[in-house]
Amino acid sequence: QVLLVFAEEDEQSNAFRWACDKAGFRCNIARTPQSALECFLDKHHDIIIIDHRHSRHFDAEALCRSIRTTKASENTVIICVVQRHTDREESSILPLISAGFTRRYVENSSRMACYNELIQLEFGQVQAQFKLRACNSLFTALEKSQEAIEITSEDHVIQYVNPAFETMMGYQIGELIEKELTEVPINEKKADFLDTINSCIKIGKEWQGMYYAKKKNGDSIQQNVKILPVIGQGGKIRHYVSISRLCNDNNKVEKTCECIQAESQTDTQTCRHKDMRKGSLDVRSTTSRGSDGSSQRRRSSMARVHSMTIEAPITKVINIINAAQESSPMPVAEALDRALEILRTTELYSPQLGTKDEDPHTSDLVGGLMTDGLRRLSGNEYILSAKQTHQVAGSLSSPISLNDIPPRITQAMENEEQWDFDIFELEAATHKRPLVYLGLKIFARFGICEFLNCSESTLRSWLQVIEANYHSSNSYHNSTHSADVLHATAYFLSKERVKQTLDPIDEVAALIAATVHDVDHPGRTNSFLCNAGSELAILYNDTAVLESHHAALAFQLTTRDGKCNIFKNMERNEYRTLRQVIIDMVLATEMTKHFEHVNKFVNSINKPLAALEENGNNGDGESIKTVLRSPENRILIKRMLIKCADISNPCRPREQCIEWAGRISEEYFAQTDEERRQGLPVVMPVFDRNTCSIPKSQLSFIDYFIIDMFDAWDAFADLPNLMEHLNNNIKYWKGLDGRNLRVLRPPP
């Protein structure tokens, strides 16, 4: 909810009101400080925007102070709108901070500027306040809990104990806070253990054992204690959590103590060293008790935090599991807790490689393609040509018409509608310019000019500009690869199931995305660019660096010159829709989300369609249409389509498959050579041109990335010829590997 406090209606207040409507935020408007305060106390808004431009109406800082005196404002974001001054020095923001403002907004009545400000607030300060509210609730629960909790800093200074802990140890409220553990009376037996405990926990392992603690009055109590280090900022130990159990004379547990993770709730290192413990005491669980306090049901404390925040689908799943635990026997409850631990990871879709018999080829491919690299180890920087002059329409000669294509090129494209079309024959016939010619033919077949309302000459100029900005010096990521992906995309679009699913605008977007998806590729991986500190990696924050660059540059090249702007005659809303689909498809080619895309496709599309067939609903067109035509599923299908087109080389006829394998290997070899020259981390060490086994690398890539994805795509689009080529190519590479050959082809 947003509260706007403006004494008078003007362009600025109207812009914020429009922005609230667009963002879907509930909005109230107050004209006076009194009405603003009353409205806030009634509605408890998340964001308050106060006009500070005209002091004659009211004192904005005084109003902010008044709001901040209320308990309800503790988690409220308050924005100050100030005048724009271009003729004098920037004033300090400290008085605004002192008054209680969260940040300031320099007046700008642009509607989109106001909208962007609100969206940034929502995903920045407002979400942070949601988390703080959840933490407050969590600590309130801990304060009322009967369980004892102690949290210390990395320097063993006590930062938190709950009332149950203070009562158990005989201390007054707050008496232990900020005391070092050495100031707290301890039994000599405990002192004897300190060296052993420290040697364990300082390397990140948990420690568990029995020792005697001394209460404030000098009485000794025997405890079963577990101490857990908590990894926080910088990957260092930032807190220690102690979990104690009071023991009676028979060493039976009388009381259990729980802990929370301070600083890092997603840390997994503290649970990698599990012990054979009695009673299932777990740092990630809380204890659920019946009215008599005797039942020992384990709960996930993090799941409760999830349930306090925005109701995302994963939150609903966690809440369902929590509910199921309520009436489950202990083995089932423990199994569900393990499931919750898995669900809390951020890499839900990425398989975890083993550590013992891990294939180095697979490991290096995953490291090179699915990570953003290590931090660079030297001062060297690889400067990608961010400042290079990109080819534009005016600097290129005019391409010939589709009707004037030379006979050899026409002949090379005769069977372009077939999967076995030879892109390398076209590459040779066009002198490494296959994209313009193949693009002209495929785009004509799909009626792209008619859809875009652009002339053939504009399309020709656009194709030439895009092709000119592919690097012909790259052995793999050049315009031939782009033409190959365009061909595969067009082939998939012609399959009956795909045609049932996608609209004309989706087909246009797919063909354009395939054409531009690797434009200006430097022949190096994202990991390399991040390690080298390239300008692009800095620009895109080490996230989907190349894919973001391809999409952005494609639109820059297209729209900067009317001669090649294929979008210039489109209606604005249709252009926005087309642009969003193109960008989404280009970004889908980034490999870090590979398993997420594939698994979502299988679970949202393959499995529901298979269930309909098993239930005898094969002819139920409406049920199938519901699965295929939902907006969410159409997005998944388009992502899967371009992903399969992008890495379809192992499904090509053997000679093409071999040629592509040689080209990508050479590009990886060149990257390894450059990494070693520059002293950068070598992200794929197996791609050493002197030692690499190309058959092994191909088999690893196929096994890890290709088989499951194309099994799923074949089940959807019906591609028996591709699967036959894939099986034959696997046999070919296995044959070479079985003979311990590291080359592309066997000797004569």
TrEMBL record:
Gene3D superfamilies: 3'5'-cyclic nucleotide phosphodiesterase, catalytic domain, 3.40.50.2300, PAS domain. GO terms for molecular function: 3',5'-cyclic-AMP phosphodiesterase activity; metal ion binding. Zn(2+) 1 binds at H481, H517, D518, D646. It comes from Daphoenositta chrysoptera (varied sittella). Belongs to the cyclic nucleotide phosphodiesterase family. PDE8 subfamily. Interacts with RAF1. The interaction promotes RAF1 activity. The keyword Hydrolase applies. It holds the Pfam family PDEase_I. Residues 134-204 form the PAS domain. PANTHER family: CYCLIC NUCLEOTIDE PHOSPHODIESTERASE. It is an enzyme of class 3 (hydrolase). Binds 2 divalent metal cations per subunit. Site 1 may preferentially bind zinc ions, while site 2 has a preference for magnesium and/or manganese ions. AMP binds at H477, N478, S479, T480, H481, D518, D646, Q698. Its cofactor is a divalent metal cation. Residues 264-305 are annotated as: Disordered. This is Phosphodiesterase. Pathway: Purine metabolism; 3',5'-cyclic AMP degradation; AMP from 3',5'-cyclic AMP: step 1/1. The keyword Transcription regulation does not apply. Its EC number is 3.1.4.-. Coiled coil: none annotated. Hydrolyzes the second messenger cAMP, which is a key regulator of many important physiological processes. May be involved in maintaining basal levels of the cyclic nucleotide and/or in the cAMP regulation of germ cell development. Binding to RAF1 reduces RAF1 'Ser-259' inhibitory-phosphorylation and stimulates RAF1-dependent EGF-activated ERK-signaling. Protects against cell death induced by hydrogen peroxide and staurosporine. It comes from the Eukaryota.
